[in-house]
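Narrative of accomplishments. A recurring question from our advisory board has been how the design workflow behaves on a single, concrete structure rather than in aggregate. To address it, we present the structure tokens for one chain from the evaluation set, followed by the sequence designed for it. No filtering or post-editing was applied between the two.
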């Protein structure tokens, strides 16, 4: 059944996507032109060429031309040759027009249904984005894609949805800008000024993130695009018409400096754009495209959306970045910043500035209520609220957010004096515990690049850092004087006037500043310009804030949530060492569950919070009750350099709020730093562990609720008692009998589908196979081609996956090539026996080669991966009867396996049983809804209680006793349910989640359901 088009645009789109053979290109051109005029793209007849075909100048004609875009139409692009010829024709148009207009020129190729946008990149026409219009496509979807290419609209309201759709990573606008900027960087990346900025960017992020930081040109280009985008938006937010501002002025933030607002947009790693040919053209183009939006009406949360929609989720996950809803930040600030006029607040992982916004607003509201003059309030607010983050894009957005919190009216007031926005790019926790920045009371910045020995240094005494404003001004002034066009190369002007202006009269300080100025002049003369100003100030600020006299009264924020298992190897080593010294490490057996957020908080309190200062942090929910967080909950972190003790106050358990606003369940913890002194000074300074009493929040929050006033009515808050996992529980005797299955990943190297043998067959005992692919594969494996070949049949084994198990029933197993000789021997590529099986040898060696080339860590061979923690060999030889249950899920699903040759995957747990009766006994218990209800609080979880693992065996499930009537009855019910479920006719092509729901509904309606529930509850009491 089709939908009949109702509006003129729907009718027009229906004609466009109908590739009728009789349709002429002239008709298609006319329809495309009509779409452009009627599609609310801010176009009229004068914006399109008067003639349908515009002559390029060398005899060729463009079908339709709008501004800096050519549209070429073809009747049907589905033919390979037609598409190739059309792309060649379009490339000629775009190349000629690019030369003529002197800026980026975009080409669109379409047959009405298939729309392709191209950009000239590195002298080649590259497909940047594609939109396929289908029968059910809404005209607005196509028009939004077109507008992203044409950039013709005006006054677009920048709502979160609009930002994500029109500027996000998936938008055609972003793809075009990224392609253009990437080509520009590739062309000029070897210039000294570009190389320097790239190196310093890398050095700063590497010092903060270690091997976790992916030092790639692609990421540098991405950051360049986003930071300059944020700078342009910053101008627009404050009412500037960015189309009228010179590119260099935009990038350097000169209008902000002129207005005496410092630290918003400044020369940084990404200012290389205005130092290379064609760079200013790109900035002007970006400004024109961004000017389509009405930024004057922007809300601060939109900037958070911009960041989240452009920075890939994988990148944010690697850095543990999850941003906080505004309403939660607002509530936390209100509860912890109780005396805003007298408390100094720091967010050490400020992201795009959500907590800063509410802290600034709280300070200014309190100042206004008290009747303080606006001049005084603006002078003081930047000394009371500050932020640090290690992501350059986040910092750029947070600085704009800080200004939004102050508000345009206050910024434009004649009472305002200069403002220096205190949001800094840096490693707020000093992850690498660097000691090289300070040397005998001096901040030392080495200026060498690469791996050579550092020879030249910028050196400043610790005393100069005590006044942040004066230090920033000093460094800026030195850099400006060194880069001044009036200074001749090789010369070094006198600094006497600067010393007088800043009242620097200490002779040692003057001599060191003069030496540093000489180094800066030499760097500028070498083409490595005053990026050093930006670099020095941002590297120094976390160190300055950690000085005892500068520590703050309130720490608040959302620290990075980065699991140990997602850290690279060298970062794991440092994390373990730092955690052990603070009693945060709970042992290698739970290492994969441990998380950076606890260490981050302990370090932040250690470095930045004054004694008696308070803190509030959003944390992963397991902090509240999981055993591997016990050391953190204790509140005593005895680091030998500076022991830290805290008194925890309360917590909010947010796990039951819907929808989830983080990938994992969350909580909020509150506390106070206390003295860790000894002797008489140690009175009343015993740490107070996190209380078991918590405030549990439940409710469903509508998408339209953003402020706390809107949200609080949807939330129920009640007192609750936390139950620590493992506390007062009697472990089941089955616990040591169940094991996790083998790690049979990556799938492309193991799992196969069987192919036809061919007309002549393959000979006895051999099968032709090809990699079986899955939509859940991850990079780089999902991008690899299939493995295909012939393998001895004995090495193609049935494998049960997590998705193979329904309650009481198994779905068909998958097949995998596994190098298991006989019943117990595992073979690798160099094993003495493997060449006895030439087909396996060929397959396995090819798989090993791919593994070695693409593995993320060098620690494991492919066989090591399969045999990790003996999870493969533990299954050999197979036993006649095993019970399996899923590792993950909101409900436990278990079944009996009677094939000894089946291999169990790591998404399942398995255990051998001695009889079918015992197997049915366990299946009845594990599949019972009552069991899931009892075990759910014990599960590890992400958004929900979803990881079952061995939590079920923390319950007192007794070993099967055939003489026990209750056990015998459970086995009987289990057998009856298994037979009922086996008789069901199921469409096994459907998703396993749906099939499990069907089976559970059958179990719920079973005549034995009530009795089973009572028996299981009685067993577990």
């Amino acid at each position: 059944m089709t939908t009949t088009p109702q509006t003129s645009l729907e009718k027009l789109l229906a004609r466009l996507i109908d590739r009728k053979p009789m349709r002429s290109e002239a008709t298609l051109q006319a329809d495309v032109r009509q779409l452009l005029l009627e599609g609310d793209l801010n176009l009229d007849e004068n914006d399109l060429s008067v003639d349908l075909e515009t002559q390029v100048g060398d005899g060729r004609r463009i079908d339709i031309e709008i501004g800096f875009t050519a549209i070429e139409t073809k009747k049907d692009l589905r033919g390979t040759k037609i598409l190739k010829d059309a792309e060649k024709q379009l490339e000629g148009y775009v190349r000629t027009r690019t030369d003529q207009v002197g800026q980026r020129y975009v080409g669109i190729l379409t047959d009405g249904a298939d729309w392709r946008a191209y950009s000239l990149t590195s002298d080649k026409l590259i497909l940047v984005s594609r939109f396929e219009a289908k029968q059910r496509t809404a005209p607005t979807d196509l028009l939004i894609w077109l507008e992203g290419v044409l950039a013709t609209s005006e006054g677009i309201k920048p709502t979160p949805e609009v930002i994500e759709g029109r500027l996000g990573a998936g938008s055609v606008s972003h793809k075009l800008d990224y392609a253009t900027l990437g080509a520009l960087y590739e062309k000029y990346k070897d210039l000294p000024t570009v190389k320097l900025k790239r190196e310093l960017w890398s050095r700063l992020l590497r010092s903060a993130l270690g091997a976790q930081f992916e030092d790639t040109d692609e990421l540098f280009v991405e950051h360049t695009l986003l930071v300059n985008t944020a700078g342009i938006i910053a101008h627009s937010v404050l009412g500037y018409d960015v189309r009228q501002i010179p590119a260099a002025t935009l990038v350097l933030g000169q209008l902000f400096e002129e207005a005496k607002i410092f630290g918003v947009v400044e020369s940084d790693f990404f200012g290389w754009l205005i130092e290379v040919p064609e760079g200013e053209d790109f900035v002007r183009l970006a400004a024109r495209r961004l000017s389509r939006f009405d930024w004057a009406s922007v809300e601060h949360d939109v900037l958070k959306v911009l960041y989240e929609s452009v920075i890939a989720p994988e990148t944010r996950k690697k850095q543990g970045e999850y941003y906080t809803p505004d309403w939660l930040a607002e509530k936390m600030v209100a509860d912890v910043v109780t005396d805003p006029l007298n408390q100094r607040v720091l967010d050490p992982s400020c992201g795009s500035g959500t907590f800063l916004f509410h802290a600034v607003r709280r300070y200014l509201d309190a100042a206004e209520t008290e009747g303080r003059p606006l001049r005084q309030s603006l002078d003081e607010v930047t000394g009371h609220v500050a932020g640090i983050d290690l992501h350059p894009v986040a910092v750029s957005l947070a600085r704009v957010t800080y200004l939004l919190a102050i508000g345009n009216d206050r910024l434009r007031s004649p009472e305002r004096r200069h403002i220096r926005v205190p949001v800094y790019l840096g490693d707020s926790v000093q992850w690498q515990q660097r000691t090289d920045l300070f040397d005998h009371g001096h901040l030392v910045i080495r200026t060498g690049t690469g791996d050579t020995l550092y020879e030249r240094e910028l050196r400043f005494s610790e005393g100069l850092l005590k006044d942040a404003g004066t230090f920033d001004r000093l460094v800026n002034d030195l850099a400006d004087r060194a880069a001044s066009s009036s200074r001749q190369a090789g010369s070094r002007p006198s600094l006497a006037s600067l010393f007088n202006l800043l009242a620097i009269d200490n002779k040692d300080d003057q001599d060191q500043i003069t030496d540093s100025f000489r180094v800066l002049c030499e760097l500028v003369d070498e083409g490595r310009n005053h990026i050093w100003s930006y670099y020095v100030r941002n590297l120094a600020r976390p160190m300055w804030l950690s000085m005892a006299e500068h520590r703050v009264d309130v720490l608040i924020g959302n620290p990075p949530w980065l699991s140990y298992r997602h850290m690279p190897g060298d970062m794991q080593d440092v994390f373990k060492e730092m955690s052990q010294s603070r009693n945060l490490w709970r042992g290698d057996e739970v290492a994969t569950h441990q998380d950076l957020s606890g260490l981050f908080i302990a370090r932040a309190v250690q470095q930045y919070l004054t004694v008696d200062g308070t803190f509030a942090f959003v944390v992963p929910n397991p902090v509240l009750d999981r055993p591997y967080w016990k050391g953190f909950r204790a509140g005593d972190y005895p680091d030998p350099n500076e022991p830290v003790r805290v008194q925890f106050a309360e917590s909010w358990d947010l796990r039951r709020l819907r929808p989830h606003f983080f990938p994992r369940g969350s909580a909020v913890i509150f506390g106070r730093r206390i003295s860790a002194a000894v002797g008489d000074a140690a009175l009343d300074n015993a740490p107070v562990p996190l209380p078991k009493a918590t405030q549990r929040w439940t409710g469903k929050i509508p998408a339209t609720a953003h402020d706390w006033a809107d949200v609080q009515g949807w939330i129920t808050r009640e007192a609750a008692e936390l139950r620590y996992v493992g506390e007062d529980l009697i472990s089941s005797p089955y616990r040591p009998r169940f094991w996790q299955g083998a790690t049979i990943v990556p799938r492309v190297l193991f799992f196969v589908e069987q192919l036809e043998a061919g007309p002549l067959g393959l000979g006895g005992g051999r099968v032709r196979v090809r990699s079986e692919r899955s939509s859940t594969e991850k990079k780089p494996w999902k991008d690899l081609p299939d493995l295909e070949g012939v393998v001895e049949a004995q090495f193609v084994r049935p494998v049960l996956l997590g998705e193979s198990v329904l309650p009481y029933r198994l779905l068909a197993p998958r097949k995998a090539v596994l190098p298991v000789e006989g019943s117990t021997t595992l073979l690798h590529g160099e094993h003495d026996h493997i060449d006895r099986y030439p087909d396996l040898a060929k397959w396995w060696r090819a798989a090993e080669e791919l593994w070695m080339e693409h593995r993320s860590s060098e620690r494991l061979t492919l066989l090591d991966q399969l045999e990790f923690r003996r999870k493969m060999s533990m299954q050999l030889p197979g036993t006649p009867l095993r019970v399996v249950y899923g590792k993950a899920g909101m409900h436990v699903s278990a079944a009996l396996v009677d094939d000894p040759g089946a291999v169990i995957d790591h998404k399942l747990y398995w255990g051998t049983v001695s009889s079918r009766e015992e197997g049915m006994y366990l299946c009845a218990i594990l599949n019972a809804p009552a069991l899931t209800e009892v075990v759910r609080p014990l599960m590890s979880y992400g958004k929900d209680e979803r990881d079952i693992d061995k939590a079920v065996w923390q319950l007192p499930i007794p070993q099967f006793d055939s003489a026990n009537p209750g056990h015998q009855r459970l086995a009987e019910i289990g057998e009856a349910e298994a037979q009922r479920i086996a008789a069901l006719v199921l469409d096994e092509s459907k998703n396993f989640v749906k099939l499990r729901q069907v089976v559970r509904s059958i179990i719920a309606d079973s005549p034995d359901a009530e009795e089973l529930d009572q028996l299981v509850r009685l067993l577990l009491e």
